[in-house]
Amino acid sequence: MKMVTFREVSKYYSGRAAVRDFSLEVEEGERLVILGPSGCGKSTLLRLVAGFIPPDSGSIAIQGDIVAADGQIMKSPEKRGVGMVFQDLALWPHLTVKGNLAFGLKARGIPKKEREQRIGEIVRLVQLEEYIRAKPAELSGGQQQRVALARALVLQPRVLLMDEPLSSLDLELSVRLRGEVLRLQRRLGFTLLYVTHDREEAFDIGTRVVMMKGDGRIERIGSVEQVRAYFQARATASHLIRQNLNDRSA
Ligand code: ADP
Fold this sequence. Notes:
Helix content is about 40%, strand content about 30%. It has helices spanning about 40-50, 95-105, 110-125, 140-155, 170-190, 200-205, 225-250, and strands at about 1-15, 15-25, 30-35, 55-60, 65-70, 70-75, 80-85, 160-165, 190-195, 210, 220-225. By secondary structure, it is of the alpha/beta class.
């Protein structure tokens, strides 16, 4: 079963394409990374899947069900089974960790007993049991990141969208949390759409990588190994060209 299907999706802002003719099938349980420079349309792709904006043309389906097409939203964000973690974690500062996790469950009318059980399970999984009564400001950057992850995962999404979630952290912590994301994804089996501009992060997280061009189009799609080989070949080619030019001008 395809989890997310983009069919010829385009999205314009003031007449400029943020995403252009984007077609892609994301498999259930896959970890797909969208890699590209700033402004190439990565966040727009996630916002389209989340349901915050509709595509101007083309369609988006989740598990075969068309959720938005040609300027219209057919299924609202909260009904899509899609969770989100952004770089700006947007934790509620006045609520404890538990309060942050309970918020979405309450909004969905989950009864107290089930809320407690689901929160208990997820805080164990992300190793935050000791901090359940802490407020976000009392936690480290990495712990806050884990709260944001837990808050998305406690809603048991089919698809998790992550937009540059680790780019505000130092490299060591970022690498550690990449491992954490992989562990949780393997354990819980959700489909991951992960946006980054960082090549190494893309290779660490992804099973497949979509490389974006600056103008919202796909440059290349491949497995991590294929995309890594492509970058190596490109680096070698530009090295040879430079050498050739140097030889000629010598
Ligand atoms: P990325 O996530 O790759 O940095 P975005 O998807 O945020 O790229 O943006 C793609 C393009 O669309 C950029 O040129 C950006 O300026 C433009 N854009 C994104 N959101 C809006 C918006 N709400 N209004 C106007 N332009 C936007």
